[in-house]
């Protein structure tokens, strides 16, 4: 690998545009690989905007050689459709950094990456796509990755950029803590309401019961999370602006497929496989799945 690694980004949406812009600002512009062709990407942030020159490629046959580092920021429901990009951009020397929610990125991506190393990450910043495909960044970009040797390639690529990178010894616990937060946000889909709904006592009780179910499953997977985590997560929603949404709610309201399986189905699947009762998941998950995928 040369001093200037070849970097590609698959999925230049809300998260992908943010990372592409952070890299572009320090002259490490990645190859942009998307579904929809665009002449450039635009990121709006608190102090202004960054224009990332394109084009956004939309045909994987345009790729001439594998990359050192590939960021993938498609929704997890879009991974299968991204298979041709991964095949063109990866070989066994590539590091693939998944900028996706959930705790299953490695399993999900491994079949498509031709022996590359897959690194999960926790994405800590909210970003939102505008109707004109530009992206609005809502907080300082920050990622956490597992502290493994290959993660240094990601840390080096993002060093000196506006996106911070932390390498964590106990990545598993951090990823599960974030998953619990995402899982309980799924209740917003069924209520069709934003964070303000957590001010209700009945919702707080339901959310806490669900989070205790999630916590039991997380601990059975090896996550070290203390007893107060459910309460802390609910308190976080209660402190948030009442109109704070979540991407799974945005997807439902736009009638797009939802990431219900990696955010909520995972609790039920892991629970069932370990004999842990998941009575709340058993109601929540089919409703989210049907809301996402139909029929009807
Ligand atoms: N947004 C957030 O605030 C946030 C925060 C934390 C974590 N996350 C997680 O980050 C991941 C990405 O979310 P996002 O909000 O950035 O999604 P998004 O805005 O919908 O972006 C997805 C991008 O992938 C592209 N894409 C779809 N199918 C593709 C294909 N077959 N090949 C290449 N590109 C394809 C889309 O193209 P089109 O332009 O054609 O739609 C779009 O540019 C998700 O797992 C999400 O849960 C998001």
From TrEMBL:
By sequence similarity, the record places it as follows: Belongs to the ketopantoate reductase family.
Summary of the function given for this chain in its UniProt record: Catalyzes the NADPH-dependent reduction of ketopantoate into pantoic acid.
Source organism of this protein record: Rahnella victoriana
Pfam families assigned to the protein according to its UniProt record, in alphabetical order:
ApbA, ApbA_C
EC supergroup of this enzyme: oxidoreductase
What's this protein's name? 2-dehydropantoate 2-reductase
E.C. number(s) listed in UniProt:
1.1.1.169
Which reactions does this protein catalyse?
A: (R)-pantoate + NADP(+) = 2-dehydropantoate + NADPH + H(+)
């Amino acid at each position: 690998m040369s001093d200037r690694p070849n970097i590609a980004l698959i999925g230049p949406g809300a998260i992908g545009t943010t990372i592409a812009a952070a890299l572009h600002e320090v002259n490490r512009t990645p190859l942009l690989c998307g579904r929809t062709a665009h002449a450039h990407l635009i990121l709006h942030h608190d102090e202004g905007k960054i224009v990332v020159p394109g084009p956004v490629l939309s045909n994987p046959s345009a790729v001439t050689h594998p990359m050192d580092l590939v960021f993938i920021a498609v929704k997890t429901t879009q991974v299968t459709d991204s298979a041709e990009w991964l095949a063109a951009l990866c070989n066994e020397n590539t590091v693939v950094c998944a900028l996706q929610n959930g705790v299953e990125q490695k399993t999900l991506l491994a079949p498509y990456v031709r022996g590359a190393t897959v690194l999960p990450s926790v994405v800590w910043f909210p970003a939102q796509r505008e109707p004109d495909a530009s992206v609005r960044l809502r907080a300082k970009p920050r990622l956490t990755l597992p502290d493994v040797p290959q993660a240094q390639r990601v840390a080096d690529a993002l060093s000196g950029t506006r996106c911070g990178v932390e390498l964590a010894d106990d990545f598993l616990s951090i990823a599960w803590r974030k998953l619990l937060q995402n899982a309980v946000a799924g209740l917003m889909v069924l209520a069709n309401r934003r964070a303000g709904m957590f001010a209700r006592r009945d919702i707080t009780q339901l959310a806490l019961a669900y989070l205790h179910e999630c916590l039991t499953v997380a601990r059975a997977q090896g996550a070290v999370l203390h007893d107060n985590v459910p309460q802390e997560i609910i308190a976080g929603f209660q402190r948030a602006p009442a109109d704070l949404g979540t991407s799974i709610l945005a997807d439902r309201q736009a009638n797009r497929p939802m990431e219900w399986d990696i955010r909520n189905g995972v609790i039920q699947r892991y629970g069932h496989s370990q004999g842990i009762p998941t009575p709340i998941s058993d109601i929540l998950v089919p409703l989210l799945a049907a809301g996402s995928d139909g029929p009807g």
